[in-house]
Amino acid sequence: MKKALMHALSLRWMTGRRVVIAVPFLWLTVAFLVPFLIVMRISFTESDGGNPFGTLMTMVDGVITLKVKISNYLFIAQDDLYVLTYLSSIKFAAITTVLCLIIGYPFAYFMARSRSTVRPVLMMMVMLPFWTSFLLRIYAWKGILANNGILNHILMSVGVIAEPLHLMNTQFSLIIGMVYAYLPFMILPLYANLVKMDIRFLEAAADLGATPVQTFWRITVPLSKSGIIAGSMLVFIPAVGEYVIPELLGGPETLMIGHVLWDEFFTNNDWPMASSVTVVVILLILVPMAIFNKYKAEQEARR
Amino acid sequence: MNKASIVTSVRDADQPFLAIRNLVKSFDGVRAVDDISVSIHKGEIFALLGSSGCGKSTLLRMLAGFETPTSGQILLGGQNIVSVPPYQRPINMMFQSYALFPHLSVWDNVAFGLRRDGMPEDQVAERVKKMLDLVQLAKYGKRKPHQLSGGQQQRVALARSLAKRPQLLLLDEPLGALDKKLREQTQMELVSIIEEVGVTCVMVTHDQDEAMSMATRIAIMSEGRILQVGAPDEIYETPNCRFVADFIGSVNMFEGRVVVDCPDHVIVESPEGKHYINHGITGTMGMEVAIAVRPEKICIQLEAPTDQQRASLAEQGYNQASGVITALAYFGNETRYHVRLDSGMDLRVSRTNAARHQATTLERDMRVHAWWDGSDIVALTN
Predict the structure, then answer these.
(1) Cα Rg of chain A (Å, integer)
(2) The whole model's pTM is what?
(3) Topology of the domain covering B3-242
(4) Level-2 CATH architecture, domain B250-380
(5) Residue B44 phi, psi dihedral angles, 5° rounding
(6) For residue A103, what are the domain limits?
């Protein structure tokens, strides 16, 4: 009797659990998987002017013909423009990630080690830029970096330089904008990780003869590995497909895949080609994601 | 001052190995450690015992170097080490709940300190192996700390803190994270390992059983001060103040006044009766004193004590009271009684169950006589 009741309860609990899990699954299916499949389908069709939904399957005289056009993908793989653009996207995203890590780690470390009363203020300072429009903040850099901008003005009035430096629409301005925009995404997961770290590990290291520098590299950094990975993913993934920042701050030498995508969609009006470019971007992003998840899963299993 | 100068410093026979002098630590004006001076000899296991917030952990952290004293000196082998950073002190600590590095294997945890000293890897391997053998974990070198049981983690922590052969070993609540059964077994093990290595040891604990069973000397701390320092039996049998008497074990405290003050005996009168103390005390007539008697020193029986039972005829009529048993608890090895004396005081008595069947069984609501020897009394004047 009691057993039956327990069984019924556990069954109910199981159903409840399934429902809870089903909600995000359903969301991911509707909002990610289905659109992705649609995009993928488009990428395999013939370009047909205004109608993006070309036919994949035809039935003539009882014969079903499945026509899968892969020339878009072949074109992407063979054409230097696409390959180079992908490579440069990855390059700029990687540089941004590394710089964000170099700047963000000390910042997060400082935040995590500061007095607990000061921490919310520092946190606020990291978040504050989000209160202003993203576009406005990026646009502001134009004012700073332009030939007759604030930075050149200051440098010339101080007398460091005689001629204005050409900063805008270069790799430099692009990377400054990207690092500026994505820094909070690096700092927050790092901070969350570092603030949780048990101070006793650091004391134990010091007790065993490790200098502060050795303690940092041997204990703090390895223990914050998951924070470093999470922050890097949060910066790298959106940075690869970034469109707005290269448009506003970049130049001819900073071609990124977001721009190519825009061109295919709205200039060439070639939806299948644009879709193919998109699918490749997603694959490029999924690979590091998969590595990250695998690492996470291994770490969970080790606990 | 570097590590070498501490290691090679001269140690005189009459000079304590570790001397703490007028040590003070204030946090925001509150003195966590308030002018402590104590000397610790080479090879002893010294316990700092007190309830939480008494300053014992702060004192230990100052020895390790994690806190800088507000004032005072810590002399290790005659050298003041107050300004030496923790990573240069020849002192290692076994942390409360161990603080084993979770990302390193057992082997690498034990080797951590040796590698920081730049010891060649073959010597490191030799030493780590020796340490793991010592704590009987030779087979577990490749495991990560979280793959070990609590008792095993404790032994890794011990091996790690001993690996560098420190001059002073600090133990912060060494057995606090273990369950009761394991704790008793580990106490003996820990002491035998420490004695085998021969390291001087300062431990912090709030558990008096742990301090009593492990330490050669105990310092009782309260509110940042040391109240008494002594061997476990000294602390228990001759506490020097009410706090210590009350803190260690359980005690019956009679509040009274000196009515007879002779060089060889003193009589104190309290509402419960007159107490005959067969030694002189430093005090004056009429002075208020507390009389402390441990529960196991008290006998209870149904009849009044006979002359033969009393230690001396002089004590006849003294050191006794009668009352009613209000509660009793059976613990197997002993039975504890609460006796409500006629004065209203609640007297705690414990009786060892030496035989399986006691001749007389004492039960609730029985009227009993309680009596004790004058030599078992401690008079506390402060």
Answers:
(1) 25
(2) 0.82
(3) Rossmann fold (3.40.50)
(4) Beta Barrel (2.40)
(5) -95, 155
(6) 79-269
